[in-house]
Amino acid sequence: MAMTVTPSQIKLRDLFDGYVNSEEDGVVGYHGRLDIRPKYQREFIYADKEQVAVIETIKQGFPLNTMYWAIARDEKGEKILDADGNETYELMDGQQRTISACEFLNNHIVVNFQKFFNIQKSTPDIAEKILDYELQVYICDGTVSEKLAWFKTINIAGKPLTEQELLNAQYVGEWLTKAKEYFSKTGCNAAELMVIRGKKASDYLNGSPIRQDYLSTVLQWIADYQGLPARSEDGDAYMANHQGDETATEIKNYYVAVLEWVGSKFKTYRKEMKGLPWGYWYNKFQRNELANNIIMKNADEIEAEIQKLIGDDEVETVKGIYEYIMDGEEKHLSLRTFDDKIKRKIYEKQNHKCPYCDKSIGGHTYPQGVTEYDYKEMEGDHIVPWSQGGKTEENNCQMICKWHNGHKSDN
Ligand SMILES: [Zn+2]
Questions:
Q1: How far is the centre of ligand 1, averaged over its atoms, from the C-alpha of 359 (Å)?
Q2: In sequence order, which residues have a C-beta less than 8 Å from that of residue 191 and are 6 or more positions away?
Q3: Per-residue pLDDT tens over the stretch 381-411
Q4: Which of 20, 53, 143, 259 ranks highest by number of CB atoms within 10 Å?
């Protein structure tokens, strides 16, 4: 099927006819034929100020941005008709504007001290004009993937949909409903979960539930845990596997296990812990890929190591300490480096020579056939490394060539 787009004018009075906004059943309008908030739409996030701007625009008869409806089709591609045999629609873009306008007509929004009801009573001609306001609507028809690709494009202008919101559109079903209840509402269980005393899961995760950041994060963690391919343009393997499930218990249990593990290993909370890749680390821990590292110790020992590292003047990051605790790699610690003044001094003292290249100093061969280097061809190196207590001080500095600095273990 090729994608078709048909420009139409829809009167506000027709949009409002049959308008229902209910917690349980979602939002419908246009004689009951338009699904204004299908399951995949983002939550209603316009501020009141923006709602008022929409209504003012309508009252003054100025145009609103074009809205996009899609002809509703079932899995087999057949049109979904209403009881009278009319085609039905899903609102693809324009949810906020549509709901703002309908809620105004529903007397739920006050603008300039007036509800729509007041306008109808005092100036019925203006009320009629508002009802005759014409919305510019593009009605489009195509396959799910065509519509999604297009939806992605038209959304660039407004509040863009997140990647997770687009994925949610592809995997509608009971599993998604249950997962969103847990992960995607303000104050949801996923955010409120207690990790240690006084600290909730939301202190450990970036983003906000309502923009689907938690769901997105945990989906990527669990895909890694189960060895599934990472999400891509083609979709999300975990969501595809579970779309038909009746519950989202598995992903909830996994999420709780990750955060319980974090709580069992880190007894003190520090602000740098927010947004770290906890799930990926939990997965590696479970796969026994972190053996021999500090993370294998108990919470008291780990806390003592963290305090020691924070107190170490050579360590210039707090965030990186957590990564170091996991995999033991010093590169995460942003260890101090020698400043230019010290490096220049040592460079001159060494007569521009690398101790590993120069036979007279190190007794090694010349890998590049060079004995004297430009300053910019050399790097500052700790004679006694940090791991053995070496400090970033002049008496612990040597200048070595870039090649040898990159082949430290060969020196
Ligand atoms: Zn060298």
A1: 10
A2: 200, 201, 202, 205, 209, 214
A3: 999 999 999 999 999 999 998 888 887 764 4
A4: 259
